[in-house]
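Standup notes, structure subgroup. Blocker cleared on the iron/sulfur cluster input:
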Amino acid sequence: MQITATHINYYNICHRKLWLFTNGISMEHTSDTVADGKLIHETSYPQRAEKYREIDMSFKLSDEVDLSGKIDFYNAKEKIIHEIKRSDKIEGAHEWQVKFYLWLLKLNGIEDATAVLEYPTLRQTNTIELTDTDIRYLEKITIEIIRLKDSEKCPPVIHSKICKSCSYYELCYVEE
Ligand code: SF4
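Run returned:
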């Protein structure tokens, strides 16, 4: 199975969301959040493209797991990933997404890279580093992601505040 930052992100947000996504039920085209996120990338930092590189990475972790990821803004000289978030809230899932990228860089021989999470609407930035404990966690959840995908039963609705901005909201709450 190919595992991307989206799987890592969804695993940390909601197992039901991950299950729906990995089983081919995709509704992101209906999500304003995704559209707004793309807009922020294009309007907040118009000069970005000149300074940073976009890179695609992959790594075969095992017979079962291929990792892959695309970093939009990578400063190769300083070994810094820049990731922009539209959210008005700092979320743990954002950190795990960039830690996944840092892990991929490390697996591809680029040691000691760091990441900067940028929240333009909050005017805040967070620097993220990858620890050995993080790597063990990421290794563990790649196995759990496969187990969840193969599970016959869709995990339950989580009844969380974040459901309102989730693209699966209507699907999850249609009968309630
Ligand atoms: S609406 Fe809530 S329960 Fe349903 S997939 Fe999204 S986050 Fe999970």
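Discussed briefly. The CA atoms of residues 45 and 84 lie 9 Å apart.
Next: hand off to the docking folks.
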